Amino acid sequence: MELGRTGLSEEDAKKLGIGYTTEFVKAADHPDYYPNQTPIWIKLICEKGTNRLLGAHAIGNKGVVLRIDIFAVAIHNNMAAEELGMVDLCYAPPFAGVWDAVHIASNAAKK
Question: What is the average per-residue pLDDT within 6-13?
Answer without folding.
Answer: 98
